């Protein structure tokens, strides 16, 4: 199975630099696809990268959705809905400020201000229910939607350095076509 990792061109360049600096080779099954979701055609860039829409694929779409407009998200989903049955997508998203406890609203405000100053403001938020409805609209079924507690249990349990995710704003969704 090929994995297509889709992200903004500047972010992709940074990722490749980090992998090279660490001496980590990109496996042949991994394909980076550089896309500015607001100005470029995801479908065209996937095809250019050798993506075959008739073969099931896994798309890692991390660090993108919160920065998109609703239109950018919809345009991307219109491409992803054309993926072959059995395809999967994994992406992160954030819950809206108003559904968070007060302390988490302040945490979100703080990080939102920092990313906005860097020129990449958070623009798109979903509750888990809203996201599930959006995904269903485009022919996708949410398989798993992990909050901070779920992510901590799966990926950070047993660490001895105290690293944990805090709050309930950030989530990771895994969905499948159909």
Can you characterise this structure?
There is one protein chain. It contains six helices and six strands, in the order βαβαβαβααβαβ. Strands 2-1-3-4-6-5 form a six-stranded mixed β-sheet. Strand 1 (3-7), helix 1 (9-21) and strand 2 form a beta-alpha-beta unit. The longest helix has 16 residues, at 102-117. With 178 residues, it is an alpha/beta fold. The mean pLDDT is 92. It has helices at residues 9-21, 42-48, 70-80, 102-117, 128-137, 148-156, and strands spanning 3-7, 30-34, 58-61, 88-94, 140-146, 170-177.
SSE layout and pairings?
Elements: E1 3-7, H1 9-21, E2 30-34, H2 42-48, E3 58-61, H3 70-80, E4 88-94, H4 102-117, H5 128-137, E5 140-146, H6 148-156, E6 170-177
Parallel strand pairs: 1-2, 1-3, 3-4
Antiparallel strand pairs: 4-6, 5-6
Radius of gyration from the alpha-carbon trace, in angstroms:
17 Å
Biggest β-sheet: strands ordered side by side in the sheet: 2-1-3-4-6-5
Oligomeric state, counting identical vs distinct chains:
single chain
Low-pLDDT ranges: none
Strand content: 15-25%
Question: End-to-end span in angstroms?
Answer: 19 Å
Query: What is the residue-averaged pLDDT?
Result: 92
Residue share in helices? Answer: 25-40%
Largest sheet: 6 strands, mixed
Give me a quick take on this structure.
This protein has six helices and six strands. The protein has helices spanning 9-21, 42-48, 70-80, 102-117, 128-137, 148-156, and strands at residues 3-7, 30-34, 58-61, 88-94, 140-146, 170-177. The chain has a six-stranded mixed beta sheet.
């Amino acid at each position: 199975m090929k994995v297509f990792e889709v992200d903004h061109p500047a972010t992709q360049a940074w990722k490749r630099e980090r992998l090279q600096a660490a001496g980590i080779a990109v496996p042949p099954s991994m394909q980076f696809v550089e896309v500015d979701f607001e100005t470029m055609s995801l479908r065209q860039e996937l095809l250019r990268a050798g993506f075959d829409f008739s073969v099931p694929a896994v798309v890692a779409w991390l660090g993108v959705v919160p920065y998109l407009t609703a239109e950018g998200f919809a345009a991307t989903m219109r491409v992803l809905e054309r993926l072959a049955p059995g395809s999967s997508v994994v992406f992160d998203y954030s819950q809206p400020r108003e559904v968070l406890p007060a302390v988490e609203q302040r945490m979100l405000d703080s990080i939102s201000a920092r990313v906005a100053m860097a020129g990449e403001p958070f623009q798109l938020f979903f509750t888990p229910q809203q996201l599930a409805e959006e995904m269903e609209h485009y022919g996708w079924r949410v398989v798993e939607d992990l909050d901070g507690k779920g992510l901590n249990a799966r990926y950070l349990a047993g660490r001895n350095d105290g690293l944990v995710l805090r709050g309930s704003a950030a989530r990771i969704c895994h969905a499948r076509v159909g």
